[in-house]
Write a structure and sequence with these properties.
By secondary structure, this protein is mainly alpha-helical. The chain is about 90% helix and about 0% strand. The protein is built from 6 helices and no strands. Helix 1 packs parallel to helix 5, helix 2 runs parallel beside helix 4 and helix 5 packs antiparallel against helix 6. The protein is globular and about 60 Å long.
């Protein structure tokens, strides 16, 4: 019962946050047939799926490995910034190679693997890959959210993500933006919440390490 009360705030904020994440992932698939031709839904779905499968696998593996280490360090009032920098640098090195490959040669790669009709999906992957890259390098910081009790801000971040997604497609429809340009805007709007997470958690890390050094 004590543990339930102790961790209730995680459930309280994570449940609506997870709902918003699922809604955010569905938003492009719902809106695209209204604004563009229906075949763009398949293009988007293929590009996102190809990118997210390895990205989520790596991020999940990283989270499973570093969570116990970081949690133990915080419980023992040890610094964590040095380990976080090392982990993040490794993730940057892992992610930068596929980012460059997809950005420069995504269309050709998709044409070769999936066929002539999927070149646009490859071009799109070269845009969306920046969002996946930020997701990947952000994983060590996201792991710290429950440890530092930042679920409320994480929920706020998901709300902002939802609003930015809606704004993106409203701009697309209002100004008759092309599919690819709208995806550039959409990707930029997806990266903004990731930057918010980075800044928020880094501020908390600094506050935590200042406290334990006193």
């Amino acid at each position: 019962m004590v543990n339930m009360k102790k961790y209730f705030h995680i459930v309280k904020f994570r449940t609506p946050q997870n709902i918003l994440v699922n809604l955010n992932s569905m938003l492009p698939l719902i809106v695209m047939p209204i604004i563009f031709d229906a075949h763009y839904v398949g293009i988007f779905a293929l590009a996102r799926t190809v990118l997210m499968l390895p990205g989520n696998l790596i991020a999940s593996s990283v989270g499973d490995v570093i969570y116990p280490k970081l949690n133990n360090a915080i419980n023992n009032k040890n610094t964590i910034s040095r380990d976080l920098i090392k982990i993040t640098m490794v993730l940057i090195l892992i992610g930068i190679i596929p980012l460059c490959i997809l950005f420069f040669w995504g269309a050709k790669l998709f044409l070769f693997v999936f066929g002539d009709q999927w070149g646009v999906a490859g071009e799109l992957s070269g845009i969306l890959v920046f969002w996946i890259f930020f997701n990947l390098i952000n994983k060590p910081l996201i792991v710290l959210i429950p440890m530092f009790g930042l679920e409320r801000k994480f929920l706020f971040n998901s709300v902002i993500n939802s609003l930015l997604g809606i704004v993106c497609f409203l701009i697309t429809k209002e100004y008759d933006v092309t599919f690819m340009k709208s995806m550039v805007i959409y990707t930029l709007f997806l990266i903004i919440p990731q930057i918010f997470i980075m800044i928020t958690v880094c501020i908390k890390i600094k506050s935590y390490e200042d406290e334990i050094k006193v």
